[in-house]
Every structure is written in structure tokens, then in C-alpha cells.
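input
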Amino acid sequence: MKKRAISGKMMDALKAGVLHPFLEAVQKDDTLCLELRGTSINIYYRGGSLFCITEQKADYKIEFDTKYCVNGNLLPANPSVQEAPGLIPQYKSRMDEWFHIHPKYEREFQQLVARVNNSSGDISRSTDYYIADMEYAGTAELGARFDMVAFKWLSKGYVRKDTSKPSLALVELKYGDGALGGEAGIEKHLRDFNAFVSDTASLREFTLDMAEVFRQKCELGLVGGLKEKQFQLNVDCSAPEVIFAFAEHDPDSDGLKRILRGIKEDEYAFPIRLASASLLGCGLYEDHMLTVEEYLQKK
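output
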């Protein structure tokens, strides 16, 4: 099982050491998102990796994918730790040019969902889910790939105060109607999720790691609205739920309903939910999670 929580050394470097300017940049810029990757961190911009910062024995290596540099406007692929924070606006500009030609709307929307539910002041305090991780890719044997790993933790005061109340939720995001079927489709994801949650030992190990990732993000100031005593969660992984978030679905298309009609929910070891918006938005609320049947009965 691949671990996502980072070392104490890297945490110290982010909080008050050589990597602190990167953390400050993310804290001051809502278009940036910092994700933990075990021996590295990724800073994402519009869903693309702005910097991958890898821990080494004596220093940290910065990597930027120069594919984002179009029209010969090259920037260093490996800027130094000292110079990279000051160059972030230039790197973002190159990525803007690339995304204009090669848009990645799904990952950009995914980053927006994480921001709304984790760090949007009163809005994130009122939602019922926190996003612990994005773009999780675990073992090939278990087919564990999740767009988002979330903790369901109801915003009711007495629940939010109890760190034993959160439960695990695995989120699959589909942007548009282009990947509902086939090898990247809904039924394939459900089979993979089923295999993953059926391995109880791996599921428990995974959940513990995600709880530590969440604690570290809270400590780094990347999750808002919680007090320090709420950072360490005791997450229930015995009854995870799987959430499908369909963004920009065409209501005139019957493809989604056709696929959902073929799903037999009792074949799976978890409840299946479809996220719907509170009017128009990205906040995730328990009351707006639909069962497959509820969605199919909607006009």
C-alpha cells in the first residue's frame, strides 16, 4: 500500500524551514492546491502539477513539466528551492497558455471541489464532507484509483466536535458525458471499488494513512474551520460509501440513466450515491446525496 503522509522532516521544512515559502504561496493563492505524496508533495494549478517537490537526503528536488511551455517560452525544469517560489507567476502563465490549447476541465473542477469543501470559510464549515486526498493511485492488484478520498463528517455541531464520527467516502468525478461507459466507465469503477473495500486489512491501512494525511493538512493550515483537537480523526472504514459526482452532465442525454438502470446495488459492499448540488455549487451535503433509484425517478 502506497503511503501518502509525508515525513516529519518534510513537515518541519514546510512549516518553518526551506519549503515554507511554497506553503505560504498555496495559503495565499486559492488557485493552488498542495497534495501529499509520501516522499514528495505536489502543488497543483488548475489541476495540473505546477511543482513536484521530492525529499532527498540533504535537499529537495523541484520538478516542472516543460510540456507546459509552448511557443518556445521555456522555463527551468528543475528550479532551485530558493528561486522557485518567486517564479510561480511565470510558471502559472505558461500553464495557462497550455491549458488554453489542451484543457483539463475534470481535474480543474476536482480542485475546485476540494477548495470549496476544505477551505472556503463558512461554506466549508457547513458542508458534510472533507477531501483528504486527490488522484489517489494505489496498488495495481487492487485497482485502487480514486479521484478523491473524502471523509463524511456531518456539520451538525455535536457531530463535528466528535472525531470518532467521520466515515470513509470514495469519490469518482466525471466531467461531461464522454467517459460513462467502457474501460473508464461507471461499472468498471464499481468493480474496482468492490475489490478494494473487500480487502479489509488494506482498507484499514489505507484509511489510517488518509487520516494522517488529513491531520498533516490541518496542521499545515490547508483545511479551515477546525480546532487543533479535531485534527486527528478516528475514521470508520467499516461502511464506506462510493460517490459519483457528475459535472456538466447533459440532461437531454439518456446515456447515464441507461447505465445506472443496469446497476444492481445489492451486488456491492457499499452504498452508491450520486452527488447533487445545493442549487448551483460544489459543496457536498448528505441531504443532497441521491441513491441510484432516487436519481432514476427524477424527471
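quick obs: The beta strands are 32-36, 40-45, 48-55, 60-63, 129-137, 145-152, 167-175, 236-247, 272-275, 289-290.
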